[in-house]
DNA sequence: AAAAAAATGGACTTGCAAGTCCAGTATCCG
DNA sequence: CGGATACTGGACTTGCAAGTCCATTTTTTT
């Protein structure tokens, strides 16, 4: 990585990444072209290769990083304070809303799939995202334990993992079928079972 | 659809579909080429376009259909008779085993994603698959109700939907991170919560 | 068995998108 | 102020993969 990036350079680089992200929200990665990115960001070929010498894949990887950060930032306000049942409900609503609005597109998903094993580091992006996400959920469950709302012997990681899987699957189905039922069901069932565990 | 397909023609057509499916298990759809399919199936360009006049997309859609059928066929022996807790456990083990072996690849997923909205019918493949899958799960839950193992007032569809979401998410995470923890957690949690509902 | 229809082989065209090159302009730094 | 270094523009090359075409062989049909 060459660090010789002036302020203007950084700005341009960011403009490219965000422009590329926008393009990828409109069309799939397999049909999105560098010319699309150029058109949207008013840059030239040489700039793209100046900032991303390895070419398209390097750019896409940067976009993936950007998008992954976005996912957590978006829900941080809710995900960061899951210390009451009401907070969990608010978070649930926000997740459903966010993905219902996003609808078809999952730039991150198709991005990682497309980069796949060919690009080292692509997998890391999603691995890291999943770990952080699950960690936040686990923290939330522990907060409920601390508040005495849940028994201490609950297997926190196990429940967090199952919940995360439900979310991912719900979003996947939402994206491939257009129906949000499964996402809602997974969240409600997951939270509901948690509440039932409290009653024991 | 032209029905003028002789026995030999049908055979060749199937050979192409299965060969293409095999290719797609090795490489992503975006890098898989018609020449790959030709090489593997010992066919020529003109044969591909003879059997799939619309070109690559039509072939890919046919492969998607084929793969979707496969998914259900594979687990039918287990999925078809979920009438005891032991049967559920056997099914669970088989799902985990199957996807752990399959590992990285999910031809169907990337296929549908790639065809996306451009190809009408691509979405239908996955919609149908999900509906049938969920239906089988629901049937299994109802079987337990009939056997008196579960209360009659349980919301069957809701639980089936949540379980399906958990599976899909678990598989997704397995594929993008290489870890099967989430798939196992989702299944165990889903079945476990079902059993706990029995105790009430 | 001969005409018709279907199946096959493979060379050729076409189009597009990634990546290269070099020349020109702005910006930084001593 | 002046050299160096970073930034930008756009024409050009290259390679590959989808799709076309027609000649040839095999099978079906009457």
TrEMBL record, chains A, B:
Membrane-spanning intervals of the chain: none
Domain HTH tetR-type: 16-63
Domain Tetracyclin repressor-like C-terminal: 90-187
UniProt xrefs under Pfam families: TetR_C_13, TetR_N
Organism classification: Bacteria, Bacillati, Actinomycetota, Actinomycetes, Kitasatosporales
GO function terms (MF aspect): DNA binding
Signal peptide: none
Domain of life: Bacteria
UniProt KW keywords: DNA-binding, Transcription, Transcription regulation
Protein's name in the database: AcrR family transcriptional regulator
Cross-referenced Gene3D superfamilies: Tetracycline Repressor, domain 2
